[in-house]
Design brief:
Blueprint: H1 2-20, H2 48-51, H3 53-83, H4 90-121, H5 139-156, H6 162-174, H7 177-183, H8 193-196, E1 208-210, E2 227-232, H9 241-248, E3 250-254, E4 274-278, E5 290-292, E6 297-299, E7 306-308, E8 314-317, E9 329-331, E10 337-339
Antiparallel strand pairs: 1-2, 2-3, 3-4, 5-6, 6-7, 7-8, 9-10
Length: 355
């Protein structure tokens, strides 16, 4: 027992001596005796614009030129939209995309490079430390914040350098104009878009043709499990080829006749297992072009809506609200697939049907 008491006293003494080695009020933290000292800021190096007034003036002119080019790019994009209207000719479509894109690129790139060059070459260049502080500052801190804004204005030269300031404001004013001009393309010109989508180029006797060659398709060409991208044979005769194609594009597939679950009123809309459905998704109008021949499912790659071809292209998954419109088809005397009529319902997103 005496030995046990002595052992307990020795352990307590050891613990006491170890606690005496720790600094007071350290909590659970360990204070390192060889902590790295704050090296401070590196030696400040002045820029060439700080040392040479001519270089400073040259940098100011460079920023002005970049902001001016940004404004020119914005105005050019608007002019290009008017100079190259999209009226169905592919040459004009290419020119429209090219020149509007070049103008918008110049506007955005020149504005960004000008802002960066202004900050690097002309704004005040010094090191500072931003100390953390409580969320709600004191009145003195809030007053100091106002002073900081005033100092930032003085250091950046925004209020003093009128040439840069005015060119920046001008570039920013015209910068949104290309987007405003492009919105014009979303508005109808002389017809109701709801009424336009009720009718396509398909009519009785119009042959189904391959996209984009325009070669007519015979029923014997459509093998079991195949899928054809289809346009009306007379599409190129349309006044506005692109808009008409956007409404009339069709996906043609062949299933086993016994796999088709057709409604009685649509029994004659297919031909020997060949069915045709609009390629325009009823969600937001993306092209439904992915066909899985084993399950007979069509997939829209944009938002993953799935349609069951064997059951009138009904929606089985995804955000689409209604089935794909079906094009009634048959064959003519030469064995070519032809339309029996136009679609019996509007193509495209469902919101066009709302009044």
């Amino acid at each position: 027992m005496a030995q046990d008491d002595n052992s307990g006293k020795d352990l307590a003494a050891a613990n006491s001596s170890s606690h005496d080695l720790l600094p007071e009020d350290t909590g659970t933290g360990v204070v390192s005796p060889d902590a790295v000292e704050n090296p401070g800021h590196p030696e400040h190096r002045q820029r060439v614009t700080d040392l040479n007034p001519k270089k400073e003036k040259q940098a100011e002119r460079t920023v002005f030129i970049l902001f001016f080019l940004s404004a020119v790019g914005s105005l050019w994009a608007v002019a290009a939209y008017m100079m190259f209207p999209i009226d169905g000719q592919m040459e004009l479509v290419r020119s429209n995309n090219l020149f509007i894109g070049l103008g918008a690129t110049l506007a955005l790139m020149a504005l960004g490079i000008g802002a960066v060059h202004w900050g690097k070459a002309l704004m005040a260049d010094h090191e500072s430390v931003d100390h953390r502080h409580p969320v709600r500052g004191t009145d003195e801190t809030r007053a100091r914040a106002i002073e900081i804004f005033e100092e930032a204005n003085e250091e950046s030269g925004f209020g003093r350098r009128s040439l840069i300031r005015n060119s920046l404001i001008g570039a920013l004013v015209v910068f949104p104009l290309p987007a405003v001009a492009l919105f014009r393309g979303l508005a109808p010109y002389d017809e109701d878009p709801v009424e336009l989508l009720h009718h396509t180029m398909w009519k009785k006797g119009t042959r189904l043709a391959r996209d984009p060659s325009g070669a007519p398709i015979k029923a014997s060409d459509v093998t079991l499990g195949s899928a054809f991208h289809v346009i009306p044979e007379d599409l190129n005769d349309a006044k506005d080829v692109l808009n008409e194609k956007a409404k009339a594009i069709v996906l043609l597939m062949r299933l086993k006749p016994e796999d088709l679950n057709e409604l009685p009123e649509r029994k004659n809309w297919s031909y020997n297992g060949i069915v045709a459905y609009s390629k325009v998704c009823t969600h937001v109008g993306c092209p439904v072009a992915l066909y899985e021949q084993q399950t007979h499912h069509l997939l829209c790659p944009c938002h993953q809506s799935q349609f069951d071809v064997a059951n009138h292209a009904t929606v089985i998954f995804g955000p689409a609200a209604r089935p794909l419109p079906q094009l009634p088809i048959t064959v003519d005397d030469e064995g070519y697939l032809v339309a029996q009529s136009d679609f019996h319902e509007p193509v495209g997103p469902s919101f066009w049907e709302r009044h």
